[in-house]
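Hi everyone,

Forwarding the result from last night's run.
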Amino acid sequence: RASPLRAAALAGAAPAFVLTCGHDPLGPEGRAYAERLIREDVPVTAVHLEDGTHGFLTMNRVIPGGAAVLDFAGAFLADRCRPR
């Protein structure tokens, strides 16, 4: 029941990194969140992995590619969170 999509407004929210996957039941909700952030002028970087599945980031031994996505997300967030 808790979802940022239910908020009356998102303007003023912190910049966001939103990662969604094509084979994830939460994917459409994540994409809608990213789209709403954009509409409300919140800086957002949205990455959609069409062939990804829910939880693939923790399945590196079975599903290749998770480590590369985590490296990308970590570098992206480290850059954005660095004091300026």
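The radius of gyration is 14 Å.

Cheers,
N.
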